[in-house]
Design goal:
Elements: H1 4-33, H2 46-64, H3 72-84, H4 89-103, H5 109-119, H6 124-138, H7 146-159, H8 163-184, H9 205-214, H10 223-237, H11 239-244, H12 252-273
Length: 276
Amino acid sequence: MRIWGKVLGAFFGFLLGNIFGALLGLWIGHRFDRGMGLNFRRAPTQQQQAVFFHATFAVMGHIAKASGQVTEQEIRVASNLMDRMRLAGEQRARAQESFRQGKEADFPLRETLAEFRRASQGQRDILRFFLEVQLQAAFADGKVEANERAILHTIADELGFSRIELARILAMAEAQMNFFNRAHGGQYQDGGHGGQQYRQEAPSRDRLKDAYQLLGVSESDSDQEIKRAYRKEMSKHHPDKLAAKGLPPEMMEMAKEKTQEIQQAWEWIREARGIR
């Protein structure tokens, strides 16, 4: 356990400002102990975005290969993702090459994830967005197999998410898949995700259940708790906010789609509960 940052910070803070200075010094020292410093981050570079881009498709290829043979559904998920990112020519070729590298038996999963985490400067919203993208590969056939789940555990560990956090994100990802399928009457993995309008009729009970889970809440939660969860999810996935933290420009459309789903889930819940 790293404690010297906290010890020294509290000591010098006390010398400069008594108890309030000590508390401030303790907080600053705590952040240095965790390797975060004062959190003065530079704007993301093209190299950082390239690391994100490569890791996304390489890890997706690794998940696809987990069951031993890459299926048509898994290839379709990767191709759909490339379509949604509007990748063509050299960009699409790079994505396909990264996907191929991920399928290799000696693919360095942990090293790739560690490099991505460093490039993203440990920013939780970016790390979570990456994990959510990988879950699309895991859900390619509608369920997560044991080998895929083991890889997701490794991804979560390397990115700093606990098993409890992973289970919650998994549940929300499954709800997102069901939410889309029920809202559009089609398969989430089959493409055509972006730009579609949600059906205007009142949502069924199943759709409402998915909407609650998509926001990470339950029917028993209060209106205020649900509203707070909605705002939190919107903040986490706001495209401009993610772009400022290093999201590659090609992935902006995916972030927009996610916020549209969160918005629609909130609208359905708000209408069903009569929230003003």
